[in-house]
Amino acid sequence: MNKFMKRNITLLYFFKIVRNFSLFIPIIVPFYQENGLSQTQIFTLQSLFALTIVFLEVPSGYFADCAGRKRSLLLGAVVSTLGFVLYSVSYGFFPILTAEILLGIGYSFMSGADTAMAYDSFAAEGNEKGYLRFESRSNGFMGMSEATASVIGGFLAMISLRTPIAAEAICYSLTIPLALFLTEPKRIASAVEHPWKNIVRITKYALHGHKEIKWLILYGATMGTLTHTMVWLTQPYYQLVGIPIEWFGILWATQLFMMGLFSHNAERYEKWLGKKSALISFPIIGFISYLTLGLVPSLATIPMLLGFYFVRGVHIPILHHYVNSIVDSDVRATVLSVQNLMQKLLYCLLGPIIGVVVDAYSLQTALLFSAVLYGSLSLIVVVNMRRLKII
């Protein structure tokens, strides 16, 4: 690879590391509770965040295809930094919601663009096969970054629950210079005439015109929602089994560190089971994890949380490599954004329902409900993928 493409890969590693240096995540639910939010409001907040992404995901992906991945990443970095600055001084549901909307806008312009930038950097040198290794390593680094930040964030929370969020705003600002130093790879540019018609055309192609892409997108949406739901149930689960808040950061870090290790071995896992069997294994692991945690809530079942981090860490590199390998460069960021959009849309629909189940019944009931819900959705997707011989 030439020096500019090599530099892109290095910068993207650091970009992903900084983006995932999440100091606030281990204490975010207690922070919400401190600001008077119920579990239903927490899931509603995250659903509205996801809804922001639903509206912007595909247009932002198209923006990255037309205006360039670098400009999209830079815009996302600036808006996200502003979102964290606002978050650090917000109190109550609506101010926090405003900050979440800014973070949703920033996320939209970065998601898909970073993946497309990496793949195009390898493709510019005829080394598409190198992308899977990059994706596996970067997911590993992201997990380790979040793990390290979790420990630090846990200690910062001893000052106040707001301190980790203020520190996050400072750290996230580093994504701006990283984006500035990226070099746009040579690629087939997307046509700029009639952009909305092109967005509709590409979206229809991804969700209807190409059956393999369609079901891979639906598979990714199901797996992404399955794991993301548990993110917002993990800290209440810690509380349920009596874990002190000072241990939240350490436990969160351990889970993320393990996710990093899992992700580093995604390529080996795929070679060991084969692509098809690997994709079938992820929903099974998620279902068993939800079921066990719901039936036997105790300190002894805490390790079952690792099932979600295994799915999250390993399925993403394999799925992204699969999708990237069958999508043309001129629509790659848009198609990847459609994939992210479907996940967020599914979470918008299901997240508040699970929050209501927690508040109306119990966390255990919500976990068992999630097992049945995601198990059923996964079965539908996998059966159709098998029918079409995708897996």
Radius of gyration: 20 Å
> What is the CATH homologous superfamily assignment?
MFS general substrate transporter like domains
CATH fold annotation: Growth Hormone, Chain: A
Largest sheet report: none
The count of β-strands is 0
Give the averaged pLDDT, no decimals: 86
Count of alpha/pi helices:
17
By CATH, the architecture is named Up-down Bundle
CATH class: Mainly Alpha
Q: Could you state the order of secondary-structure elements as H and E? A: HHHHHHHHHHHHHHHHH
* Weakly predicted, low-confidence segments: none
Distance between the termini: 33 Å
Give the percentage of residues in beta strands. Answer: under 5%
Give the helix/strand class. mainly alpha
| Helix share, percent | over 70%
Apparent shape: globular
Number of domains: 1
Give me some keywords for this one.
single chain, 391 residues, mainly alpha, Growth Hormone, Chain: A, 17 helices, 79% helix
Any chance you could write out the topology, listing elements then pairs?
Elements: H1 3-19, H2 28-34, H3 39-67, H4 69-87, H5 93-110, H6 113-123, H7 130-156, H8 163-172, H9 175-180, H10 195-209, H11 211-240, H12 248-264, H13 266-273, H14 275-295, H15 306-326, H16 332-360, H17 363-387
